[in-house]
Specification:
The protein is built from 3 helices and 9 strands; from the N terminus they run αααβββββββββ. The protein is α+β, with helices and mostly antiparallel strands. The protein has a single domain, classed as Metal Binding Protein, Guanine Nucleotide Exchange Factor, Chain A (Beta Complex), CATH 2.170.150.20. The longest helix has 19 residues.
Length: 154
């Protein structure tokens, strides 16, 4: 019986972080579900608050090539400098590096593989995923939902 209790407790402890996601994390900018719904479109809410994904090639920011800064749509925190943006051919705005301290990450186990999810470090809004197939100097591809971003030209 002790062995069964140990195994049950161990499995629960291992599963809890994966199931908890961002639950229990406090962010500098917080809003109620009603406040988020009032400020975001249905698609923006699905992506930013429920970790959904927009369809590829639907964001105008995918083709944004001016000098400036990409900001979090949820709190206006600067996330990516335009100099780090590149065309990954995936249909989503892609960057090889975020601004220092601007994003947080966690494991995403929703599909058959483990991916690295990224979110705004200030408000927790889901941005997209980070992959190891990007260009130098980092080798990273931050594949970001355009609906999670706004753009401020320089």
């Amino acid at each position: 019986m002790k062995r069964r209790s140990f195994l049950t407790t161990a499995l629960a402890a291992l599963a809890t972080p994966a199931l908890a996601g961002k639950a229990g994390v406090t962010y500098e900018v917080t809003r109620s579900e009603e406040e988020w719904r009032a400020m975001l479109t249905e698609l923006e809410y699905s992506v930013m608050r429920e970790e959904g994904t927009e369809r590829p090639y639907t964001s105008p920011l995918n083709d944004e090539n001016r000098t400036g800064t990409f900001l979090c749509k949820g709190c206006d925190q600067p996330l990516y400098a335009s100099e780090t943006k590149y065309d990954s051919g995936t249909g989503w705005p892609s960057f090889y590096q975020a601004k220092s301290g601007a994003i947080g990450t966690k494991d995403d186990r929703k599909l058959l593989s483990v991916r690295t999810e990224c979110h705004c470090s200030r408000c927790g809004s889901h941005l997209g995923h980070i992959f190891d197939d990007g260009p130098e100097p980092t080798g990273k591809r931050h594949c970001i939902n355009g609906v999670s971003l706004t753009f401020a030209p320089a």
